[in-house]
Amino acid sequence: DEHAHLQQLLELSAQVEQWGARTQEQLLPLAPHVWRTRAQVAAAAQALWDGAFVELYGSWAAWLQLPASDVDLVVCGVPKEVSPADALRALVAALEAQPWVVSLTLLLHGRVPLIKAVARLPPELCSLSQPAGELSIDISLDVAAHDGVATTRFTRDVLCSSLPLLRPLVLVLKQLLASAGLSCGFRGGLSSY
Q1: Under DSSP, is residue 151 helix (H, G, I), strand (E, B) or coil?
Q2: How far is CA 36 from the centre of its chain?
């Protein structure tokens, strides 16, 4: 019966919305740590280059994050005469001494070179991340090939604001892909982008 089918779809939609809201609410205590990490990376960049600043983009900036989501940061204001490889090497050296850093890996050969970092979470936040107690961070530079900030703003300010049901639907899809091991583009799955 068409009415029963419509009722099932409405119930499913409500469940998806509730799950998305619960997931976002559970991650709220982690947000101040994400902002603190951004500030620590910004301080390291500013010590290297006057006028440097760091922007948050990606799932955390668009409010489309899950417990396994990484934090995407872009360093802006690096002088043009400094090559991206040299800038990232200098930033790795500056971050190595930070007590919150668990590991740093420099990846220079991608479309957008970056630093993959892992930050240690305070004990009270360990259960909010996957893997527990760690927060993955991708740090890139604002180079010509980098469109993450603009894409995030479009996703957050245009798509999610005009289509409010998009956020919970994307969260469920991301969780399904992650649970099937298909949430990583360079491993054959789909990237969240």
Answers
A1: helix
A2: 14
- Pairing assessment for the beta strands 71-76 and 101-107 based on DSSP bridges: unpaired
Per-residue pLDDT of the chain (193 residues; tens, 9 = 90+): 888 999 999 999 899 889 888 888 888 888 999 999 999 999 999 999 999 999 999 999 998 898 888 899 999 999 999 999 999 999 999 999 899 999 999 999 877 889 999 998 888 877 777 777 888 999 999 876 678 888 888 988 898 889 888 888 888 888 888 888 877 766 666 766 6
Predicted structure pTM score = 0.86
- Give CA 5 to chain center in angstroms: 37
> Among 68, 69, 40, which residue's Cα sits nearest to residue 54?
40
Q: How many C-beta neighbours within 10 Å does residue 187 have?
A: 9
| Tally of CB atoms within 10 A around 121 | 19
